Amino acid sequence: MTTLAIDLDGTLLHPDNRISEGNRRALLALPPETDIVICSARPLRAILSLTDSAGLLPVIRAIGACNGAVIYDCRTQSVLSRATLSPVMLSALQNLLTTGWHAFGEDALLCPPGEISEYTIHEAELFGLPIQTLAADDIFSRTDIIKITLCGEAEALRQRAEILRPLLPAKVSAFFTDQHYFELVPASVSKGSTLQILTERGILRPGTIMAIGDQENDLSLFAAADLRVAMGNAVPALKQAAGYITADCREDGVAAALHHYRAAFRNDT
């Protein structure tokens, strides 16, 4: 195994937003040649803070933040690429979105007046981002919008997503990152494209890739991987695409998966 591509929420993280000691030790025990890539819907700043506080940042090779919209080289401490929703994309989306959404700018979570829901507050607190209230027209005219997130009660959001998907412009991709969050990003952006870009730039070595995830946005990661591990708490579509289903995130499923495949890491690095 040369590369481990791993999701955070619902995968490496316990529900209480921490990396357990078991998962932490499992990552630190990997052969030093293993390229660890964190692929998450979280913003870069939140990922750096989380992994640094757990003492894992020194062993991470790269990060695909905001589902791959921002790609970061941990060794050089530099952003390799940053994708934003273009003015054309934003104009098309503005005609489709009326309520129940927020946008991610460079350093803040942007929300129209009166639209700050419990889900918006939760993401802002989870990611350590300030909430900035702006008129919808002002948000959709910005040039730094990385993604737009629709949020709400699970069943209502599922129904809304079903209606919205066929109406989205071709250059916009959409996927659930959680039952309460449905994200819109440039079509060129995905967790899978993160691995492709890192390989093309020579940051990742050719070899076997293992991917571990739990949500719909991890399907592209699975498509780019040789070994696909779904968490015990993963959505059905991801479990169907997996070659192995590990334990729940509450039970250190990442550590269990790495133990299961320990021989592959020893033989392929």
Distance between the termini: 6 Å
Total domain count: 2
How much of the sequence is in beta strands?
A: 15-25%
What is the 3D shape?
globular
Order of helices and strands: EHHEHEEEHEEHEHEHEEHEHEHEHH
CATH C-level name of the largest domain? Alpha Beta
- DSSP helix fraction: 25-40%
Strand order of the largest sheet: 5-4-3-2-1-12-13-14
- Give the name of the CATH superfamily of the largest domain: HAD superfamily/HAD-like
Tell how many strands the DSSP assignment holds.
14
The CATH topology of the largest domain is what?
A: Rossmann fold
Oligomeric description of these chains: single chain
Q: How many individual helices?
A: 12
Report the uncertain regions.
none
Q: What is the architecture of the largest domain at the second tier of CATH?
A: 3-Layer(aba) Sandwich
Largest sheet: 8 strands, mixed
Helix vs. strand class: alpha/beta
Mean pLDDT: 95
Estimated radius of gyration = 18 Å
